[in-house]
Amino acid sequence: MKIYIFIILAAATSISLISCDSKQSDTRSASSTEVHRNDDGHDHRESDGDNHSEIENSGKGHEDEIIFTRQQAEAIGLEIYNVVPGSFVQVIRTSGQIQAAQGDEETIVATTNGVVSFPGQNIIEGATVGVGSTIVTISAKNLYEGDPVAKAKIAYETALKEYQRAEGLVKDKIISAKEFEQTRMKYENARTAYEAQAANVTVSGVKVTSPISGYVKNRLVSQGEYVTVGQPVATISKNRRLQLRADVSENYFNELKKIRGANFMVSYNNKVYRLEDLHGRLLSFGKAAAESSFYIPITFEFDNIGDFIPGSYVEVYLLTTPQNNVFSIPVTALTEEQGIYFVYLQIAEEEFVKREVGIGESDGKNVRILSGLKEGERVVVKGAYQVKLASSSSVLPEGHSH
Question: For bias kind Basic and acidic residues, which ranges apply (predicted)?
Answer without folding.
Answer: 34-63
